[in-house]
Amino acid sequence: MSTGVIHNETLLLKQISEGNDAAFREIFDLYRDRFYGVALKMSASAYIAEEMVQEAFVALWKNRSLVAHVEKPSSYLFSIFYRCLYQHYKREAIEQKLKRELAELGVENGEGVLQEKSGKEDQYQLLEKALQILPPQQAMVYRLSKQQGLSREQVAAQMGISPNTVRNHLAEAMRALKDFVRNAGIIVIILGYYLLIKF
């Protein structure tokens, strides 16, 4: 990339930092297809690719006050884009983990669409409420085993109990949680689980 192009993009970013819509549109036109191509190759989904492009430019606009003195525009813009991709796949991994977790508790329908809620609580809050009914040691065993993915031996070592006790606590926790799920009438899974993830 020539220094002239770099200088021009640096100027555009400075103008964007001042709220210049035309400069934003110009940067959008310069980078949209490049971002889209990368996202499409990674996701094999035109919808996700378009979504990632939009997220990257929304992030750029929201953080426009930070771009006035960027010296390497391309590197900076791609860092925003790759961060959006990372967050997308991180959210997706967490959603898949919750689907598996709730499936073990007898929740049906893993389509990733929140069809029902209990009051205003989402599925994550409902699961947390379910965990609160457990005795503290059972809840800790469940969290370490199912949420953090530790082995029975690792849980035992961390809690200072035997692996057999871990197994018994986990079995009792699973029974209690399944009963809670059935009684609460939970039917589906999430899209907004763990939106504690910040950009």
Radius of gyration: 23 Å
Cα shape: elongated
Q: Show unreliable segments.
A: 108-121, 185-199
Described by strand count, sense and barrel closure, the largest sheet is:
none
- Discrete helix count: 8
Instruction: Please give the alpha-carbon distance between the first and last residues.
Output: 29 Å
Beta-strand proportion: under 5%
How many runs of DSSP E, i.e. beta strands? 0
Order of helices and strands: HHHHHHHH
Structural class: mainly alpha
Helicity, in percent? 55-70%
Rounded mean pLDDT score: 76
Entry keywords:
199 residues; mainly alpha
Detailed description of the structure:
With 199 residues, this protein is mainly alpha-helical. It has helices spanning 3-17, 21-43, 46-62, 73-104, 123-132, 136-147, 152-159, 163-184. Helix 2 (21-43) runs antiparallel to helix 3 (46-62). Mean pLDDT is 76; it is low at 108-121 and 185-199.
Question: What's this model, at a glance?
Answer:
This protein has 199 residues and is an all-alpha fold. It is built from 8 helices and no strands. The C terminus is likely disordered.
List the helices and strands and how they pair.
Layout: H1 3-17, H2 21-43, H3 46-62, H4 73-104, H5 123-132, H6 136-147, H7 152-159, H8 163-184
Helix pairs in contact: 1-2, 2-3, 3-4, 6-8, 7-8
